[in-house]
Prior knowledge:
Blueprint: H1 17-22, E1 26-30, H2 35-47, E2 52-57, H3 65-73, H4 79-84, H5 88-92, E3 95-99, H6 110-116, E4 122-125, H7 136-154, E5 162-166, E6 177-178, H8 191-198, H9 203-214, H10 220-235, E7 241-245, E8 248-250, H11 267-270, H12 272-275, E9 280-283, E10 292-294, H13 295-309, E11 324-326, H14 339-344, H15 350-356, E12 360-363, H16 366-389, H17 396-415, E13 419-420, H18 423-431, H19 434-439, H20 449-452, H21 456-471
Helix pairs in contact: 2-13, 7-10, 16-17
Amino acid sequence: MGDFRTLPINSLEGRSDVSDFYRNSVVLITGGSGFIGKVLIEKLLRCFEVRKIYLLMRKKGNDSVEDRMRKIFQEPIFNSVKQNHRNICALFSKVIPIDTDFDQDQPVSEKDQQLLLPEVNIVFNVLASVKFNEQIESALFTNVICSRTLFELASQMPNLKSIVHVSTFYSNCDRPCIEEVIHQDIPFGGYENILNIFEQLNDSEKDQLTPMILRKMPNSYTFSKKCAEIMIQKKYNELPVAIFRPPVVLSAYREPIPGWIDNFNGVAGMCIPILRKKFYCARSLPGNPSHSVPVDFCVAAMIAVGAEIRKETELPGQSRSVPVYNYATDRNNVLWEEYSKLAASGLDTRVGRFLGQYTIINTNSSIFRQIFVWLFLLQALVADLISGFTGKKQRNLSLAKRVLALEEAACYFGLNRWTVRNDNMRRVWEQMSDRDRKALDFNIDRLDWRDYFKTYIGGVRDALTRRKLRKD
């Protein structure tokens, strides 16, 4: 269970089923401006001969969808494509942004529908709100209602071959073993009833009801992702759809740029104290596995799953169980107690590597953690006072509060542990040709974590630098 290494080597070296599946295809992506979405776009453009990529995007501020797409292509992860492609304008012209508003029953215009519906073959639904403690209504809207609207659109596509819905490994984290199964134990008769009830309540009443709705689920994010899976099984199981569940997604390992990341959600944010040369105390059980994967491995697995769906042979109109792919393993995980040492291994100096490994400690003691929080905030406050006297910007306290809030929301995942069933995901790897395995290496059990972390902290530093330049 949970071991990619036990699988036989595929003898079909010359065949490339995945590449053949994507060749000349038209792909539709939601969430293309996000962390995973950008890597997915880059990978499809660089490695697969897709005909078009439609991006469902919304306007943001004064930026049109075309402006937002141009900014995506200015990201450093597209440098390799720009340097190695003869006609980069022709390549980027394959990517077409579609002005989208999921607040409406029809998220795209009639004109755009006429463009999309006959052409789209493959859909990647990466759109999600990853705010852990968002209000239930907001989380359900983004993670369930928007997905439902997308699936309504997809159900009208006559040439549709595959839909990959990106969920999360933690959608059933109220169970000790995460199986490749959709569990339908939502209280109050489901998400629609919950939304109807919330329409009748004031904010105080909603706050009182929320724990009863979440039950053993730690936050609105995991709860809403579970609701989305149930919605897909109940209403859209006749579509060629599969649910893909990644765990914590980290910076890139090998491609497009080793160490690249564009956000500080999750572990990346908690590693900022290593760069700031500050002591940090995280709440977790040190011996628990982190269940993490690099973003390039995650995207490779998504692409492989997309090609796998089309192999199903159920008769049209026949009800089916939506397949679930747990992209996680029990065999090769970084333990929480190892994170600081491994992250510090990428620092520039020998002294930094030695001291950095002791920067972060892990504890499950709430008392010890609270003492640390007071000291951490006091340290940041003093640093801001010094910055104020010297005429520099006072950012330490606000940064410290963001790191603490992020870690507090995520500590549930460090204080608990799960076992994994990943038979479906292993079968995808088993059935791939050797050529596909080279193009889409997502075998977590062969991942060398020590080698991976050589570029990890440098990637976090680069992301901090880019963010500072944008603000300044």
